[in-house]
Amino acid sequence: MFNDFEINKIRIKQTDNNLLTLEDKILGKYKDGVFVFAKSENYADDFGLQWENFPKTQFDSFSGKNISKARMEEALQSDLSELRDKKVLEIGSGSGRFTEILAQSGAYVDTLDLSKAIFVNQRNNSKFSNKIRFIQSDFLKVPLPKDEYDYVLALGVVQHTPDSYQTINEMISYSKKGGKVIFDHYIKGLFEGNNRRLTARLLRKIILKFNQKEKLSTIKLIYNLFYPLHKFFGFSKFLSKVLRTFSPIMTHHGSLDLTDDQFYEWGLLDTHDNLTDYYSHKISVREMRDFLNSLEIDSSSVFKGTNGINVLIKK
After folding, report:
1. Which of 116, 238, 267, 279 has its CA 20 to 30 A from that of 85?
2. What is the pTM of this model?
């Protein structure tokens, strides 16, 4: 189902010692089931550490919930049956919570992540290896064919790249004519989404200066300090929302149906995600629509969703 890796229609070769070469130039290597084209250190390193510490937390198959599936259906604006036998490019897959959903739905998936989280994804989803190709690469430099995929998907990713608009344009270039490009994005606005969490925004600027181990230990300390308050007021959606206005941590009390242990772990995971992301762009609904209207695409849909703005483009 997959074409070989190629650049300008020249095939990348895999040598006996698993180096990936193009005309005798080494581009990367094949390691532990992953095609590696990325540098060992990059701006996504904190995400790699994050998913090593929370490898299966958000997996539906692990949590016993349908949270990831529901979010995927929200993004697709349909059920998942339309994915069967379709070719999907998934960008920024982390530990693979959505990779699992895609493979279970019968899609063939090229899934990539810039960080070492792709190795966590490979371990989590190795049983689907006949349907998935795992790739560690900068999305803007990955040697994959353009105009090729039925779906190009990025959930929880675009706002964490250096330039959201460049990333969106690049996503569209990989979609075939008539294909769909699907992503979400943090929303701009003082009282929109997580933007009202002013304490967290100030704290993030300090934590970003720490090394990885200091970040994780500091966030755990802060989280354990504030979490009991969130748990106490968890019975009320209104009070939970008020608390989230000044608390620096993230929890899902009042919004997700989880066990006590899951509330704790999901909240700690998302707090680390929110306080360590190197890039954290925000776009308003109007700005997104204006940008999409400037592109040569067939149609687009922009609406508020679980993670800010949801966008579906038909090329």
Report:
1. 116
2. 0.93
